[in-house]
Write a structure and sequence with these properties.
Elements: H1 7-15, E1 18-23, H2 25-28, H3 37-52, E2 56-61, H4 64-72, H5 80-102, E3 109-114, H6 117-120, H7 122-137, E4 141-146, H8 160-171, E5 175-180, E6 185-186, E7 198-199, E8 201-202, H9 207-212, H10 227-239, E9 243-248, H11 254-259, E10 265-267, H12 273-284, E11 289-293, H13 295-302, E12 312-316, E13 324-328, E14 334-339, H14 344-350, H15 358-362, E15 376-378
Parallel strand pairs: 1-2, 1-5, 2-4, 3-4, 5-9, 8-10, 11-13
Antiparallel strand pairs: 6-7, 9-10, 11-12, 13-14, 14-15
Helix pairs in contact: 3-5, 4-5, 8-10
Length: about 375
């Protein structure tokens, strides 16, 4: 485990085109459960600056329960139904606080509430991904939180560090920044061991790294996650090609501090998300049906285009949106495999039709591609 200069984290952040920033309750809220509005305004300055440079930003925020319990006058250890009630009350104030922080930049916030099923069920995953893409294309800043009002222990992420890692996976982020009340990973708990050494860069998450992660943020107070959960989140993100930066968030302008070389821990990515995803689409999931296309569609697909309804000749099998399908050429030769954006019954209605006819044919509006180019793997690839 080699310790490199902390500016490596700065260089990684500066090179990122899309980032996810996770904000924990312990730094967003004061001891009384109120939002630290001055601090939040400084973070908005940082994120607005990144956006002005062309970087797409997604925020994962804790704090709904902490804010809600204060508003509802709840104290002590909360039962599940009390936590859900506190979340319901707190979500409104939480979203208002974030929107207020970005008002002076004329940046709109779009709230996205997720549960574990949204990342484990393929169709719900695709829906979530489409929502994020649309929000980012509209220049909206997605604000993510777990849907605690309906989540139970069986369907919860457990903490927002893991939620942030899965959000980074969905949006295909380059960097996940976890703002915490500690400035990164140490060789031991610095609160009890004066000889603890700060670790600037983690090249790979080894059992040793996982073992030493149990101390530094163990007693963070308001939030649910500790350093172990941050390392677990970094492992999820890293497998999908996303680096993780654990940085101190208590002071003003915490993201700008990382970009300027402030102390933090960079955990390097270990996977290639595009290669893994294309392997998954191309051969690791069984196709549920067949879409036969015409010669024009074959040419367009080989040129890198999405499959549009006009190029569809017929559909075989019964499948739902998000299922894998085989794309068949006019000569009945398998052309490739992809994830269908429409069900088989929907495709039967729109096959061979122009994109501008779809709303009238289906009765609702949707993106026209039957299979998006990013969800398609051709046999020649």
């Amino acid at each position: 485990m080699e310790k490199l200069a902390s500016s490596t984290a700065a260089a990684t952040l500066r090179a990122a085109k899309r980032i996810v920033v996770k904000v924990g309750s312990a730094i967003l809220c004061g001891d009384d459960g109120s939002v630290r509005s001055t601090w939040l305004a400084s973070l908005a300055d940082d994120l607005a600056g990144l956006r002005a440079k062309g970087c797409e930003v997604v925020v994962v925020t804790s704090g709904a329960i902490a804010i809600g319990r204060r508003r509802l006058g709840l104290s002590g250890s909360l039962q599940l139904d009390e936590k859900q009630a506190a979340s319901a009350a707190g979500q409104v104030a939480l979203a208002q606080a974030w929107q207020g922080a970005f008002e002076r930049y004329d940046i709109q916030i779009g709230q996205v509430l997720l549960t574990l099923a949204d990342t484990e069920d393929r169709r719900r995953y695709l829906n979530a991904r489409a929502t994020f893409r649309t929000l980012l294309n509209l220049n909206v800043l997605p604000l993510v939180n777990e849907n605690d009002t309906v989540a139970t222990s069986e369907i919860r992420y457990g903490d927002n560090d893991r939620l942030a890692a899965h959000a980074a996976q969905i949006v295909e982020s380059d960097v996940l920044i976890i703002l915490s009340d500690v400035d990164g990973l140490y060789s031991a708990d610095p609160r009890s061991d004066l000889d603890a050494v700060h670790i600037a860069v983690v090249e790979a998450i080894t059992p040793k790294i996982e073992n030493i992660a149990s101390g530094p943020n163990k007693n963070a107070g308001v939030g649910a996650g500790g350093m172990a959960s941050k390392i677990a989140a970094a492992k999820i993100a890293g497998a999908n090609g996303c680096a993780t930066i654990i940085a101190p968030g208590g002071e003003a302008n915490p993201v700008a501090a990382v970009a300027e070389g402030g102390r933090s821990t960079l955990i390097c990515a270990t996977g290639n998300p595009e290669r893994a995803r294309r392997q998954w689409i191309g051969g690791r999931i069984k196709p549920a049906g067949v879409i036969e296309v015409d010669a024009g569609a074959v040419k367009a697909l080989k040129a890198g285009a999405s499959l549009l309804p006009a190029g569809v000749v017929k559909v075989e099998g019964l499948f739902s949106r998000g299922d894998a399908v085989t794309i068949m050429s006019p000569g009945r030769e398998p052309l490739g495999q992809g994830l269908s954006a429409y069900s088989s019954s929907e495709i039967e209605k729109i096959a061979g039709r122009r994109s501008d006819e779809l709303e009238n044919l289906l009765g609702y509006r949707r993106r026209p591609a039957v299979v998006e180019k990013n969800d398609l793997v051709l046999r020649t690839e």
